[in-house]
Design a protein that fits this description.
The protein has a two-stranded antiparallel ribbon. The protein has nine helices and two strands. Helix 1 runs antiparallel to helix 2. It is mostly helical.
């Protein structure tokens, strides 16, 4: 029974990790049906993977070195997934970026490739060392990860409920706005959208761009304008239609 609970708990952890990595965005919720299909597939695949792992580990004797190596490497990978999930939940920075910023591990210069590879394996090497040192507490570590996985998956459910309510209200507001008729239908508006544009950098070098400065001074400019979606092919249609986006799909070779 313990192994089945371990399998389910660890599978939920991988689903939470993927959810917060792939779907969390301040402005764009991915289509709900796509989330369900992908997470369900990942959950089933994870169940099979962890079942095979625990099945094989039972076949090994606990006092042999290969057993210890399997357990240490497995727990190091699981702990790293848990730490990554915390960073993905924050939606501010990834674990890799945190390591790069903390230890100044930026892939620049002729050693850029080596630094990138080292930065990827660094957390695994660290957790392998820690778990090897605390090997006798391996079951408690696994128990903590299971509790943590349930905790993070509760946040997945909470986030989905919160997103559905938020964008339901936003779409209702958009429908109300769409019913308002323009008083002057002959009014012409030239709307510029600067893709991949950083206004902070532009302000810093404004004197070097006189044309941009002139255009900026003679136009209406939003000071607190956030992108409606992470991707351009979703953000621009959302702005043009004046609705809160819920994602994009391709069906029968047509883009929706």
């Amino acid at each position: 029974n313990r192994n089945y609970f371990d399998i389910v708990g660890l599978s939920l952890l991988l689903c939470s990790n993927y959810y917060f990595q792939a779907y969390i965005d301040r402005y764009l919720p991915v289509n709900f049906n796509i989330k369900i299909i992908e997470l369900l597939f990942l959950f089933i695949t994870s169940l099979i993977f962890f079942y095979v792992y625990f099945f094989l580990i039972k076949k090994l004797k606990a006092n042999i070195i290969i057993y210890k190596i399997f357990v240490v490497f497995f727990l190091a990978w699981i702990v790293n997934q848990a730490i990554q999930t915390l960073f993905f939940m924050s939606n501010e920075m990834t674990f890799t970026f945190f390591l790069a910023k903390t230890f100044n591990l930026y892939p620049e210069g002729k050693y850029g490739l080596f630094i990138r590879i080292f930065r990827f394996f660094l957390p695994y090497l660290f957790f392998i060392f820690v778990i090897f040192f605390f090997y006798n507490y391996r079951n408690k570590i696994l128990d903590f990860i299971k509790i943590f996985s349930i905790f993070t998956f509760c946040f997945v459910i909470y986030n989905e409920i919160n997103l559905s309510l938020h964008f339901k209200n936003k779409n209702q507001e958009s429908l109300k706005l769409s019913k308002i008729q323009n008083q002057n239908k002959n009014l012409k508006v030239l709307w510029f959208v600067l893709d991949e544009f950083d206004p902070l950098i532009a302000e810093e070098y404004l004197d070097l761009m006189p044309n941009y400065k002139h255009f900026k001074d003679k136009s209406f400019e939003h000071k607190n304008f956030f992108m409606s979606a992470k991707k351009t092919n979703v953000s621009i249609p959302a702005q043009l239609m004046g609705i809160a986006p819920i994602g994009a799909i391709v069906k029968n070779k047509k883009y929706y």
